[in-house]
Write a structure and sequence with these properties.
By secondary structure, the protein is of the alpha+beta class. It folds into 2 domains: about 1-180, Ribosomal Protein S5, domain 2, CATH 3.30.230; about 185-325, 2-Layer Sandwich (Alpha-Beta Plaits). The protein has helices at about 1-10, 80-95, 115-130, 140-150, 200-210, 215-235, 240-255, 270-280, 305-315; strands spanning about 15-30, 35, 40, 45-60, 70, 100-105, 160-165, 175-180, 185-195, 285-290, 295-300, 320-325, 330-335. The strands form 3 sheets. Strands 1, 4, 5, 6, 7, 8 and 13 form a 7-stranded mixed sheet that branches. A 4-stranded antiparallel sheet has the order 10-11-9-12. α2 (about 80-95) runs parallel beside α3, α3 crosses α4 (about 140-150) and α6 (about 215-235) packs antiparallel against α7 (about 240-255). It is globular. Bound molecules: (3R)-3-hydroxy-3-methyl-5-(phosphonooxy)pentanoic acid. GO terms for molecular function: ATP binding; diphosphomevalonate decarboxylase activity.
Length: about 350
């Protein structure tokens, strides 16, 4: 009986799978955790998937492999591999297999630059590896599992506009779609600015949040903010929405700036573009910024203003490159394997 069951399990495992995951940008941010190990966030967050920033990952389990092999953007990096192998171990445990894996992953955007490659990266790894291991998990369970790899990764699995419910336990902290990608005609322009590679990882940064004297105040108001942003998205009230998103990003950076030690993710060019965005608003163009743990900016506008805003942004000296994004669907499995 046991032998038959093992055989069936083997047949169920298609051994190799590929997933393509969008990155996401949070309108209400996740900064600080209430449980380090389970990656339970201090507060819920709201995001949208980005059509132009993507990670594609192929995972294959095979008895031919003597150890896990992890290649990211054509390179083997020991430090990054450790986190990937830890995640593979979680998936092997769930699938009750011991096979080693080969993982090949590519981003279409610069990594460790504040463009959240860990979000799309761990989302793609979770879905490719569980599928290759023959696990059939619901979307909710996939988001719970992805969260253990990197918190924001859970938001790259559901479609479009997404809420990550903070929860108090492992099973109650998950992400779900609140509106499909096509719900709202907005664009998110990633403005890449001059800047060094990120020095403090978000994993280390989250630990510092509680050292800011303002963190308690942030948490006191956050649920009200979550309700408000959901209402503004629902009603498509763009200007109020944009203002709230921009203020929220500045609040997260206020926590970072006032932590001990203090974190400054901005570069001079970051501040220059913030000012440029505000000038554009004074000229009557509704565009708002949000910034993650890096120097680059995510500029949000309505599609009807996209051409005029892009043209004006190009006149500034500080933006090296603009990547256009629309709200995107969540993760997909594809047969375009990377090996
Ligand atoms: O998922 P992590 O640990 O990389 O944290 C992401 C944190 C921010 O990008 C700064 C904010 C967010 O909600 O995405």
């Amino acid at each position: 009986m046991l032998i038959i069951m093992r055989k069936e399990l083997k047949l169920r495992i298609n051994m190799k799978a590929t997933a393509a995951a969008p990155s996401n940008i949070a309108f209400i941010k996740y900064w600080g955790k209430k449980d380090e190990k389970l990656r339970l966030p201090a507060n819920s967050s709201i995001s949208v998937n980005l059509s132009g920033l993507k990670t594609t990952t192929t995972v294959k389990f095979s008895k031919e492999y003597k150890q896990d092999k992890v290649q990211i953007n054509g390179q083997v990096n020991k430090k990054e591999s450790i986190r990937v192998v830890e995640h593979l171990d979680r998936i092997r445990k769930l699938a009750k297999i011991e096979l080693k894996a080969k993982v090949v992953s590519v981003n279409n955007f610069p990594k460790s630059s504040g463009l959240a490659s860990s979000a799309s990266g761990f989302a793609a790894l979770t879905v490719a590896a569980t599928s290759a291991a023959g696990l059939k998990l619901s979307e909710k369970q996939l988001t719970i599992l992805a969260r253990l790899g990197s918190g924001s990764a859970c938001r790259s699995i559901p479609d479009g506009f997404v809420e990550w419910i903070a929860g108090k336990t492992h099973q109650s902290s998950f992400a779900r779609s609140i509106y499909p990608a096509k719900y709202w005609d907005i664009s998110i322009l990633v403005a890449l600015v001059e800047g060094e590679k990120k020095k403090v990882s978000t994993t280390s940064g989250h630990k510092l949040a509680r050292t800011s004297p303002f963190f308690g105040t942030r948490l006191k108001n956050i649920n009200r903010k979550i309700s408000l942003i959901k209402h503004l998205i629902k009603e498509k009230k763009f200007r109020e929405f944009g203002q709230l998103v921009e203020n929220e990003s500045l609040e997260m950076h206020a926590i970072m700036l006032t932590s001990t030690p203090s974190l400054i993710y901005w570069q001079p060019a970051t501040v220059a573009v913030m000012r440029h965005v505000r000038d554009l608003r004074h000229q009557g163009l509704p565009v708002y910024f949000t910034i993650d743990a890096g120097p680059h900016l995510f500029l949000i506008c309505q599609n009807s203003d996209l051409t005029s805003i892009t043209e004006r942004l190009k006149t500034g000296r500080f933006i090296k490159k603009i990547i256009l994004n629309r709200p995107a669907r969540g993760i997909i499995l594809t047969s375009n394997h990377l090996f």
